[in-house]
Amino acid sequence: MENIFSDQLTMLRQKKSLSQEIIAQKLFVSRQSVSKWERGDAEPDIDKLIALADIFGVDLNYLLAGQQSSKELLLKLIAVNKKFQNPVLRGVNLTIYGRDRIALLGSNGSGKSTIVNIIEGTLPTDSGQVEKYFDAKDDLNVMPQENVLIESLRLEEHIVLSASIQRVYSKQIVHDLLEKFQLKAQANIKISHLSGGQKRRLALLLSVIRTSKLLILDEPTVGMDLESIDFFWNYMDHIGGSVLTITHDFNQIDRYFNRVLLLKNGVIWKDETVAKIHSNNQTIEEWYRKYNRNEGEII
Ligand SMILES: Nc1ncnc2c1ncn2[C@@H]1O[C@H](COP(=O)(O)OP(=O)(O)OP(=O)(O)O)[C@@H](O)[C@H]1O
Protein backbone atom coordinates (compact mmCIF):
# COMPACT_ATOMS: atom_id res chain seq x y z
CA MET A 1 0.00 0.00 0.00
CA GLU A 2 2.84 2.42 0.87
CA ASN A 3 3.85 3.55 -2.58
CA ILE A 4 0.42 4.39 -3.91
CA PHE A 5 -0.74 5.86 -0.61
CA SER A 6 2.35 8.04 -0.21
CA ASP A 7 1.99 9.34 -3.79
CA GLN A 8 -1.71 9.97 -3.23
CA LEU A 9 -1.04 11.81 0.02
CA THR A 10 1.55 14.09 -1.58
CA MET A 11 -0.64 14.73 -4.61
CA LEU A 12 -3.84 15.44 -2.65
CA ARG A 13 -2.02 17.68 -0.15
CA GLN A 14 -0.50 19.72 -2.98
CA LYS A 15 -3.78 19.90 -4.86
CA LYS A 16 -5.35 21.45 -1.76
CA SER A 17 -2.25 23.67 -1.27
CA LEU A 18 -1.79 22.38 2.29
CA SER A 19 1.66 22.20 3.88
CA GLN A 20 2.87 19.15 5.78
CA GLU A 21 2.79 21.39 8.87
CA ILE A 22 -0.94 22.13 8.44
CA ILE A 23 -1.78 18.45 7.92
CA ALA A 24 0.25 17.59 11.02
CA GLN A 25 -1.63 20.17 13.08
CA LYS A 26 -5.01 18.91 11.90
CA LEU A 27 -4.10 15.33 12.83
CA PHE A 28 -2.24 16.15 16.06
CA VAL A 29 0.95 14.49 14.83
CA SER A 30 4.42 15.86 14.12
CA ARG A 31 5.37 17.25 10.71
CA GLN A 32 8.07 14.56 10.60
CA SER A 33 5.33 11.90 10.73
CA VAL A 34 3.61 13.38 7.68
CA SER A 35 6.93 13.56 5.92
CA LYS A 36 7.59 9.86 6.71
CA TRP A 37 4.16 8.90 5.34
CA GLU A 38 4.92 10.78 2.11
CA ARG A 39 8.30 9.08 1.77
CA GLY A 40 6.66 5.69 2.36
CA ASP A 41 8.76 5.10 5.50
CA ALA A 42 5.72 4.75 7.77
CA GLU A 43 1.94 4.44 7.57
CA PRO A 44 -0.71 6.27 9.58
CA ASP A 45 -3.26 4.47 11.80
CA ILE A 46 -6.72 3.86 10.39
CA ASP A 47 -8.26 6.77 12.35
CA LYS A 48 -5.68 9.12 10.83
CA LEU A 49 -6.39 7.68 7.37
CA ILE A 50 -10.10 8.37 7.81
CA ALA A 51 -9.33 11.90 8.98
CA LEU A 52 -7.05 12.44 5.95
CA ALA A 53 -9.74 11.22 3.54
CA ASP A 54 -12.08 13.69 5.22
CA ILE A 55 -9.63 16.60 4.91
CA PHE A 56 -9.14 15.92 1.18
CA GLY A 57 -12.81 15.15 0.52
CA VAL A 58 -12.06 11.77 -1.10
CA ASP A 59 -13.09 8.25 -0.19
CA LEU A 60 -10.70 5.96 1.61
CA ASN A 61 -10.16 3.68 -1.41
CA TYR A 62 -9.03 6.61 -3.48
CA LEU A 63 -6.66 7.80 -0.75
CA LEU A 64 -5.15 4.34 -0.31
CA ALA A 65 -5.09 2.96 -3.80
CA GLY A 66 -5.81 5.89 -6.09
CA GLN A 67 -8.84 4.08 -7.38
CA GLN A 68 -11.97 5.86 -8.43
CA SER A 69 -15.36 4.29 -8.22
CA SER A 70 -15.88 2.13 -11.31
CA LYS A 71 -19.42 3.49 -11.59
CA GLU A 72 -18.33 7.10 -11.86
CA LEU A 73 -19.29 8.50 -15.25
CA LEU A 74 -16.38 10.49 -16.67
CA LEU A 75 -17.08 11.18 -20.31
CA LYS A 76 -19.73 10.79 -22.96
CA LEU A 77 -19.39 11.34 -26.69
CA ILE A 78 -22.80 11.37 -28.34
CA ALA A 79 -23.20 11.12 -32.12
CA VAL A 80 -19.94 12.95 -32.78
CA ASN A 81 -19.20 13.80 -36.40
CA LYS A 82 -15.98 15.18 -37.84
CA LYS A 83 -15.01 15.76 -41.43
CA PHE A 84 -11.75 17.01 -42.92
CA GLN A 85 -11.50 16.53 -46.68
CA ASN A 86 -13.51 13.34 -46.10
CA PRO A 87 -15.76 12.30 -43.22
CA VAL A 88 -13.65 10.71 -40.44
CA LEU A 89 -16.07 10.33 -37.52
CA ARG A 90 -19.66 9.52 -38.47
CA GLY A 91 -21.62 9.37 -35.26
CA VAL A 92 -19.20 8.21 -32.57
CA ASN A 93 -20.83 7.18 -29.29
CA LEU A 94 -18.50 6.47 -26.40
CA THR A 95 -18.84 6.40 -22.62
CA ILE A 96 -15.90 6.25 -20.20
CA TYR A 97 -16.28 5.36 -16.53
CA GLY A 98 -13.95 5.59 -13.53
CA ARG A 99 -11.22 2.89 -13.50
CA ASP A 100 -11.74 1.98 -17.16
CA ARG A 101 -8.61 0.66 -18.85
CA ILE A 102 -9.47 1.12 -22.50
CA ALA A 103 -7.45 0.22 -25.58
CA LEU A 104 -8.66 2.16 -28.63
CA LEU A 105 -7.83 0.18 -31.76
CA GLY A 106 -8.33 0.91 -35.43
CA SER A 107 -6.44 1.08 -38.72
CA ASN A 108 -4.15 3.97 -39.61
CA GLY A 109 -6.25 7.00 -40.48
CA SER A 110 -9.44 5.61 -38.91
CA GLY A 111 -9.72 8.67 -36.63
CA LYS A 112 -8.26 7.59 -33.28
CA SER A 113 -6.16 10.73 -32.75
CA THR A 114 -9.10 12.80 -33.95
CA ILE A 115 -11.17 11.36 -31.08
CA VAL A 116 -8.36 12.16 -28.62
CA ASN A 117 -8.12 15.74 -29.89
CA ILE A 118 -11.87 16.17 -29.57
CA ILE A 119 -11.85 14.85 -25.98
CA GLU A 120 -8.89 17.10 -25.17
CA GLY A 121 -10.79 20.05 -26.59
CA THR A 122 -8.14 21.03 -29.14
CA LEU A 123 -10.41 20.12 -32.06
CA PRO A 124 -14.06 21.11 -32.44
CA THR A 125 -16.67 18.60 -33.57
CA ASP A 126 -18.86 19.30 -36.61
CA SER A 127 -21.86 18.03 -34.67
CA GLY A 128 -22.67 15.88 -31.66
CA GLN A 129 -22.03 16.31 -27.96
CA VAL A 130 -18.97 15.95 -25.75
CA GLU A 131 -19.97 15.72 -22.09
CA LYS A 132 -17.13 15.81 -19.57
CA TYR A 133 -17.96 14.98 -15.98
CA PHE A 134 -14.62 16.21 -14.67
CA ASP A 135 -12.65 19.42 -14.69
CA ALA A 136 -10.57 19.15 -17.87
CA LYS A 137 -8.11 21.73 -16.51
CA ASP A 138 -7.20 19.64 -13.46
CA ASP A 139 -8.25 16.08 -14.20
CA LEU A 140 -7.23 15.30 -17.76
CA ASN A 141 -3.67 14.33 -18.71
CA VAL A 142 -2.71 13.61 -22.30
CA MET A 143 0.45 12.12 -23.77
CA PRO A 144 0.20 13.07 -27.45
CA GLN A 145 1.46 10.99 -30.35
CA GLU A 146 4.04 13.64 -31.25
CA ASN A 147 6.27 14.75 -28.37
CA VAL A 148 5.54 18.33 -27.35
CA LEU A 149 8.88 19.17 -25.76
CA ILE A 150 10.88 22.39 -25.52
CA GLU A 151 14.09 21.23 -27.17
CA SER A 152 16.27 24.08 -25.83
CA LEU A 153 15.65 23.18 -22.17
CA ARG A 154 17.62 20.68 -20.14
CA LEU A 155 15.64 17.67 -19.00
CA GLU A 156 15.40 18.69 -15.33
CA GLU A 157 14.52 22.28 -16.26
CA HIS A 158 11.66 20.95 -18.36
CA ILE A 159 10.29 18.91 -15.45
CA VAL A 160 10.57 21.92 -13.12
CA LEU A 161 8.75 24.11 -15.64
CA SER A 162 5.94 21.62 -16.25
CA ALA A 163 5.53 20.89 -12.53
CA SER A 164 5.37 24.64 -11.80
CA ILE A 165 2.76 25.23 -14.51
CA GLN A 166 0.69 22.40 -13.03
CA ARG A 167 1.18 23.90 -9.54
CA VAL A 168 2.73 20.75 -8.05
CA TYR A 169 6.40 21.76 -8.06
CA SER A 170 8.69 20.78 -5.20
CA LYS A 171 12.36 19.76 -5.24
CA GLN A 172 11.32 16.40 -3.84
CA ILE A 173 8.81 15.74 -6.65
CA VAL A 174 11.39 16.47 -9.34
CA HIS A 175 13.93 14.26 -7.59
CA ASP A 176 11.40 11.42 -7.23
CA LEU A 177 10.31 11.66 -10.88
CA LEU A 178 13.89 11.55 -12.16
CA GLU A 179 14.48 8.44 -10.04
CA LYS A 180 11.21 6.75 -10.91
CA PHE A 181 11.64 7.28 -14.66
CA GLN A 182 15.33 6.40 -14.55
CA LEU A 183 16.31 9.71 -16.12
CA LYS A 184 18.62 10.98 -13.38
CA ALA A 185 21.75 10.56 -15.51
CA GLN A 186 20.16 12.73 -18.23
CA ALA A 187 18.97 15.51 -15.86
CA ASN A 188 21.38 18.10 -17.31
CA ILE A 189 21.20 17.05 -20.92
CA LYS A 190 19.42 19.28 -23.43
CA ILE A 191 16.18 17.79 -24.71
CA SER A 192 17.46 18.13 -28.28
CA HIS A 193 20.34 15.76 -27.39
CA LEU A 194 18.16 13.00 -25.88
CA SER A 195 17.50 9.79 -27.78
CA GLY A 196 14.04 9.16 -29.23
CA GLY A 197 13.23 6.64 -26.49
CA GLN A 198 14.40 8.99 -23.73
CA LYS A 199 12.21 11.76 -25.17
CA ARG A 200 9.23 9.40 -25.14
CA ARG A 201 9.96 8.47 -21.53
CA LEU A 202 10.14 12.17 -20.65
CA ALA A 203 6.87 12.83 -22.49
CA LEU A 204 5.23 10.14 -20.35
CA LEU A 205 6.75 11.61 -17.19
CA LEU A 206 5.42 15.08 -18.07
CA SER A 207 1.93 13.71 -18.68
CA VAL A 208 1.74 12.04 -15.26
CA ILE A 209 3.41 14.70 -13.07
CA ARG A 210 0.05 15.14 -11.40
CA THR A 211 -2.59 12.46 -11.09
CA SER A 212 -5.78 12.84 -13.08
CA LYS A 213 -9.20 11.25 -13.44
CA LEU A 214 -8.51 10.47 -17.09
CA LEU A 215 -5.16 9.81 -18.74
CA ILE A 216 -5.05 9.57 -22.53
CA LEU A 217 -2.02 8.06 -24.22
CA ASP A 218 -1.61 8.20 -28.00
CA GLU A 219 0.77 5.45 -29.19
CA PRO A 220 2.88 5.81 -26.01
CA THR A 221 5.41 3.04 -26.65
CA VAL A 222 6.28 3.84 -30.25
CA GLY A 223 10.03 4.57 -30.41
CA MET A 224 10.76 2.97 -27.03
CA ASP A 225 13.24 0.12 -26.67
CA LEU A 226 12.13 -3.14 -25.00
CA GLU A 227 13.40 -2.05 -21.60
CA SER A 228 11.46 1.23 -21.79
CA ILE A 229 8.35 -0.61 -22.99
CA ASP A 230 8.53 -2.93 -19.96
CA PHE A 231 9.08 0.08 -17.73
CA PHE A 232 6.09 1.82 -19.30
CA TRP A 233 3.63 -1.04 -18.75
CA ASN A 234 4.86 -1.67 -15.22
CA TYR A 235 4.44 2.00 -14.47
CA MET A 236 0.90 1.95 -15.85
CA ASP A 237 -0.04 -0.61 -13.20
CA HIS A 238 0.32 2.19 -10.64
CA ILE A 239 -1.95 4.67 -12.40
CA GLY A 240 -5.11 5.18 -10.37
CA GLY A 241 -7.55 6.95 -12.72
CA SER A 242 -9.09 5.83 -16.00
CA VAL A 243 -6.80 5.30 -18.96
CA LEU A 244 -7.60 5.48 -22.66
CA THR A 245 -4.68 4.27 -24.77
CA ILE A 246 -4.18 4.12 -28.50
CA THR A 247 -1.77 1.25 -28.96
CA HIS A 248 -1.02 -1.73 -31.11
CA ASP A 249 1.37 -3.21 -28.56
CA PHE A 250 -0.43 -6.54 -28.71
CA ASN A 251 2.17 -8.18 -26.48
CA GLN A 252 0.86 -6.19 -23.53
CA ILE A 253 -2.70 -5.39 -24.45
CA ASP A 254 -4.15 -8.62 -23.04
CA ARG A 255 -2.62 -8.00 -19.63
CA TYR A 256 -3.30 -4.37 -18.91
CA PHE A 257 -6.70 -3.41 -20.35
CA ASN A 258 -10.24 -4.33 -19.30
CA ARG A 259 -12.06 -2.90 -22.31
CA VAL A 260 -11.28 -2.69 -26.02
CA LEU A 261 -12.84 -0.36 -28.58
CA LEU A 262 -12.56 -0.84 -32.31
CA LEU A 263 -12.95 2.30 -34.41
CA LYS A 264 -13.99 1.40 -37.94
CA ASN A 265 -15.93 3.16 -40.70
CA GLY A 266 -16.14 6.28 -38.52
CA VAL A 267 -17.98 4.66 -35.61
CA ILE A 268 -17.16 2.57 -32.52
CA TRP A 269 -17.70 -0.68 -34.38
CA LYS A 270 -17.05 -2.88 -31.33
CA ASP A 271 -16.91 -2.15 -27.59
CA GLU A 272 -15.99 -5.32 -25.73
CA THR A 273 -14.65 -6.36 -22.34
CA VAL A 274 -11.32 -8.11 -22.35
CA ALA A 275 -12.80 -10.79 -20.07
CA LYS A 276 -15.39 -11.62 -22.72
CA ILE A 277 -12.78 -11.78 -25.49
CA HIS A 278 -10.62 -14.07 -23.36
CA SER A 279 -13.58 -16.24 -22.40
CA ASN A 280 -13.93 -17.05 -26.10
CA ASN A 281 -10.36 -18.31 -26.08
CA GLN A 282 -9.19 -15.38 -28.17
CA THR A 283 -6.34 -12.97 -27.73
CA ILE A 284 -7.14 -9.32 -28.36
CA GLU A 285 -4.93 -9.43 -31.45
CA GLU A 286 -7.03 -12.31 -32.88
CA TRP A 287 -10.24 -10.46 -31.98
CA TYR A 288 -8.93 -7.27 -33.60
CA ARG A 289 -7.90 -9.02 -36.81
CA LYS A 290 -11.26 -10.76 -37.02
CA TYR A 291 -13.39 -7.64 -36.66
CA ASN A 292 -11.13 -5.12 -38.39
CA ARG A 293 -10.86 -7.03 -41.65
CA ASN A 294 -12.66 -5.63 -44.66
CA GLU A 295 -16.04 -7.04 -45.60
CA GLY A 296 -15.71 -10.16 -47.70
CA GLU A 297 -12.04 -10.65 -46.80
CA ILE A 298 -11.24 -14.25 -45.97
CA ILE A 299 -8.78 -14.92 -43.15
N1 LIG B 1 -6.02 18.64 -39.27
C1 LIG B 1 -6.33 17.80 -40.24
N2 LIG B 1 -6.54 18.25 -41.49
C2 LIG B 1 -6.87 17.41 -42.50
N3 LIG B 1 -7.02 16.10 -42.35
C3 LIG B 1 -6.81 15.58 -41.12
C4 LIG B 1 -6.45 16.40 -40.01
N4 LIG B 1 -6.33 15.61 -38.92
C5 LIG B 1 -6.58 14.36 -39.34
N5 LIG B 1 -6.88 14.34 -40.64
C6 LIG B 1 -7.26 13.15 -41.43
O1 LIG B 1 -8.23 12.44 -40.71
C7 LIG B 1 -8.01 11.04 -40.82
C8 LIG B 1 -7.89 10.45 -39.41
O2 LIG B 1 -6.68 10.88 -38.83
P1 LIG B 1 -6.24 10.42 -37.38
O3 LIG B 1 -4.89 11.02 -37.13
O4 LIG B 1 -7.31 10.72 -36.42
O5 LIG B 1 -6.13 8.84 -37.57
P2 LIG B 1 -5.49 7.74 -36.62
O6 LIG B 1 -6.51 6.63 -36.52
O7 LIG B 1 -5.05 8.36 -35.35
O8 LIG B 1 -4.26 7.28 -37.50
P3 LIG B 1 -2.83 6.63 -37.11
O9 LIG B 1 -3.10 5.24 -36.60
O10 LIG B 1 -2.12 6.61 -38.43
O11 LIG B 1 -2.18 7.53 -36.10
C9 LIG B 1 -6.77 10.88 -41.68
O12 LIG B 1 -7.18 10.60 -43.00
C10 LIG B 1 -6.07 12.21 -41.61
O13 LIG B 1 -5.37 12.50 -42.78
TrEMBL record:
Q: Which UniProt keywords apply?
A: ATP-binding, Nucleotide-binding, Transport
Q: Which SUPFAM superfamilies match?
A: lambda repressor-like DNA-binding domains, P-loop containing nucleoside triphosphate hydrolases
Fetch the PROSITE patterns from UniProt.
ABC_TRANSPORTER_1, ABC_TRANSPORTER_2, HTH_CROC1
Start and end of every HTH cro/C1-type domain?
Answer: 9-63
Residue ranges occupied by any ABC transporter domain in the UniProt entry? 73-290
Q: Name one GO molecular function term.
A: ATP hydrolysis activity
Q: What is this protein called?
A: XRE family transcriptional regulator
**What species was this sequence derived from?**
Leuconostoc litchii
Classification of source organism? Bacteria, Bacillati, Bacillota, Bacilli, Lactobacillales
